Amino acid sequence: MNPVLQTIREAGRAPISPYGPIAREMAEVENILAETVRNDHSGVAEVVGHVSHYKGKRLRPALLLLTAKACGQLTPKHPVLAAVIELIHTATLVHDDVLDNASTRRHVATANARWGNHNSVLLGDYLFTHAFYLATTLGDIQACQIIGAATNRVCEGELWQGLERGNLSLTESEYLDLIDAKTAELIACSSRLGAVYSGAPANIVAAIERYGRLIGMAFQIADDLLDIVGEERTTGKSLGTDLEQQKMTLPLIRLLSAAPEPRRSVVEQILNAPGNHKREALAPYLAESDAVDYARQKALEFAARARAELACLPHSSSRSILEAAADGVVNRNS
Ligand code: IPE
Ligand code: IPE
Ligand code: MG
Ligand code: MG
Description:
Oligomer: single chain
Shape: globular
Order of helices and strands: HHHHHEEHHHHHHHHHHH
Radius of gyration: 20 Å
Helix content: over 70%
Number of helices: 16
Strand order of the largest sheet: 1-2
Bound molecules: 3-methylbut-3-enyl trihydrogen diphosphate, magnesium ion
């Protein structure tokens, strides 16, 4: 695994970790999450408990804490805000897996695979509402406004994506706007919260928010590449779902736009066909095209722009991790 994501993950796992300057606060985030997802009703507890052994990379809380530390002081509000963001992220994944009919997430069965779509919609709602309740415990209206606005835009992005299913004419610029909403927004929000609550001045907050948005863009392009050429064994989630759900992503947009006829028509037929063997069918066409390299290059461009935004911060170990994380979100296999 990429060393930066490894550092972030280990910082999240160990109570007192030698890795990273945010180990103690990440452990606190874990405690808050464990406390928040507890439920007394045994049936509900089982479903809700699913998300506690349903642990991902913890990228967003780690970024929130690292941006805070890179900008100034970590405060008691930061771990709470980081837990709120992770709860919202997890809620979006629970709902996303219903929408994508996915069977595996974070190396285990999805909630929809275990308890069906109805219960998973409610589990997602449970996590969203817990997140918003937890945010209010800070007694700080600004945090609620920032988090509410960002979550609303994530939902808008997912809705927009659903409405574009099967639209093989989706342009690169529309795709970039869409992933800005569904993915980059929450990562930008994490970075912004980190900076705002460390007392950073407005110009630094704006730069750090741009950093988060740009790595969010790089992150989703890399994710879209994994959906087409990644391995389920390493990602721990169902792949090929973008193809199955007829979601146009950057490598596919490039593949179609650069393919000469009659290859373009064949690729269109594959994308329009029912069933879930499209990865295999597309592989030879992808291999002959520059689509994977093109998308990867775009992701690296976003990562480079993200790194440049950090120039306004003083040098520190947190800033170095944030710099490395920019490329880390592209060069990953999970
Ligand atoms: C998955 O996010 C959803 C996307 C925005 C691509 P992550 O890859 O951060 O998911 P976890 O939290 O590690 O499972
Ligand atoms: C990201 O899109 C979903 C959210 C922002 C919730 P994907 O559908 O590509 O995410 P994965 O691949 O299922 O994790
Ligand atoms: Mg999905
Ligand atoms: Mg994906």
